[in-house]
Amino acid sequence: MEQVSLGKGIYWVGVHDHQTDLFEGLWPVQEEGVSYNSYLISSQKTALIDLVKQPFAGSYLDALRGKVDLSRLEYVVLNHMEPDHTSALRDLVQTAPQVKILVSEKARSMVESYYGLQDSVQVVKDGEEISLGEHTLRFVYTPFVHWPETMMTYVPENEILFSCDAFGGFGAQDGIILDDQPEDLDWYLDEALRYFANIVSGVSKPVLNAINKLAGVPVKIVAPSHGLVWRKDPAKIIDLYAKWSGYSSQPAEKGITILCGSMYGSTAQLVKAVEDGIASTSVAFKTFDAARTHASYILPWLWKNRGVVVASPTYEGYLVPPIRNLLEIASHKRMFNKSAVYTGSFTWGGGARRDIESYVEQLKWNLAASYDYPGYPGEAHMEIGHRLGAELAKQVLQD
Questions:
Q1: Global pTM value
Q2: Is the peptide bond before 332 cis (omega within 30 degrees of 0)?
Q3: Dist CA 380 CA 390 (whole Å)
Q4: How far is CA 279 from CA 68, 361, 380, 391, in A?
Q5: pLDDT-based confidence at 349, cuts 50/70/90?
Q6: What are the pLDDT digits (tens) for 55-110?
Q7: Residue 279 phi, psi (nearest 5)
Q8: CB 79 within 8 A of CB 152
Q9: For residue 185, with 0-12 CB atoms within 10 Å meaning exposed, 13-18 middle and 19 or more buried, which class applies?
Q10: pLDDT averaged over the chain?
Q11: Residue range 291-320, pLDDT digits in tens
C-alpha cells in the first residue's frame, strides 16, 4: 500500500482494487479498477477517515502499522456506512479496541446492525469540531449523498475536504493518486462521469444542496473515497459534479443517445437511417447495442445527452428485454426530461410502441414521434427513419 502525503501529517493510505468484477455487485470495474481512499491524520491525536473493503483489511492494517502505532489510534471517522468504506472496521477494532468511531446520528444504528458495535460509537453533530492538536476535524452533514447518514469531514488548517462518495470516480491505475499524475486525465474524467451516472445521479438534488452548503468553504484539496484526489485543480471536479447534477432538472448537452435492440437485424437496419438523419445536422450521437453493452457504460451518455432514440422490435408484446431493463434503470436513476423518438419492427400484433409510451410517461420524456413497421424496412421506411433522426436533432438544438 502506498502512502502519499497530502500535507503535514496527512496521508492517503488507501488501496487500489483490481480484483472486484462488479462494484456494488452491479457495475463493471475489473478492467478499470476502483480505489478505496482512506486517509490518516497524524497529529497530537491520530485519526483515520474512512476505511477500505474487508478483503484488503490485512494488507491495509499491516501498512498502517508502518506509519502509526495503532494501539494509540484515537478516532476513525466513518463518513458513510456503505461496506466498501467500512467493512474493514471489525479488523481495525480487533487491532485497536480503544478507537472511537465517529459517525453521524443516523449512522449510529447502522454501525450496530452491520458490525455489532455500540460502546465505541460516538455521534458527531453537523458543524461540530474535534481537535487533534495541529489539525481539526469539522463534520458537515450531507444527507443522501448518497445514503441518509452521509457526511463529509473538513480540515480547516489544510483546507482539505474529505468528501466521501461526492466528487468520486471509478478507475484506478497503480501509482496514480493525485489529479496531476495521469497522462490521460480525460480517462479519469470519463470514469468519474460513469461513476456519477451509475451511483450518484439519482440523488442529484442532494449533491447540489451539499455543494451550496459548502460554497463559502475554501477547499485546496478534494479527497473523495473513490478515484483521484484533486490537489492541482479541486474546483474542476466540484464544477463537473455541479454541472452533471444540474442535468436532473435542466437541459443536458446537445447530443443524442441511440438505444438499439435488434433480434434479426430489421430494427438495426432502420437505425442506420436514423443515424444518417442525425449526421445531416451538427448534433453528435452515440449508438449502443443494448443487448451487448452493459448498462453501466450506456448510462453516462443517456445522462449527459438531451436526446434519445429508442429502437426496439416488439418482443412478446413489449420492447425487447435489454431495452426495457435499461429504461427501468434510467427511471430509477431519475434520468428525466429528454426529447425522444421511438422506432422498431413488428411481425403481427405489435406492442412495443404501446410499451414505450408507458416508459416515457414514467421518465417525463417528450416523445416527439413513434414509428413502427412490419418486417424488414424498405426504401420508404428508411426515408422515414432518416427524417426521424434529422427532426430529433433539430429538436435537441432548440431545447
A1: 0.95
A2: no
A3: 16
A4: 59, 28, 19, 11
A5: confident
A6: 999 999 999 998 899 999 999 999 999 999 999 999 999 999 999 999 999 999 99
A7: -65, -20
A8: yes
A9: middle
A10: 96
A11: 999 999 999 999 999 999 999 999 999 999
| pLDDT, tens digit, 9 for 90 and up, residues 128-144 | 999 999 999 999 999 99
3 state SS of 257:
strand
Q: What single-letter amino acid sits at 130?
A: I
**What order of strands is seen across the sheet that includes strand 253-260?**
284-289, 253-260, 305-311, 339-346, 366-374
CA geometry: angle 150, 65, 94, nearest 5 deg: 60
Distance, CA of 21 to CA of 10 (rounded, Å): 31
Helix (H, G, I), strand (E, B) or coil at 306: strand
Place of cell 480487533: 94
Distances (CA, A) of 341 to 303, 310, 396: 16, 6, 11
pLDDT digits (tens, 9 = 90+) for 181-212: 999 999 999 999 999 999 999 999 999 999 99
* Per-residue b or e along 236-273, where b marks 16 or more CB atoms closer than 10 Å to that residue's CB: bbbebbeebbebbeeebebbbbbbbbbeeebbbbbbeb
258 phi, psi to nearest 5 deg: -105, 120
Distance CA 275, CA 186 (A): 26
Map grid coordinates 441511440 to a residue.
258
Pairing type for strands 129-131 and 121-123 reads unpaired
Task: Kindly list the structural domains of the chain, giving each domain's residue range(s) and its CATH number in brackets, ordered by start.
Answer: 4-246 (3.60.15.10), 255-398 (3.40.50.360)
Q: Distance between CA 281 and CA 202 in Å, rounded?
A: 31
318 three-class SS: strand
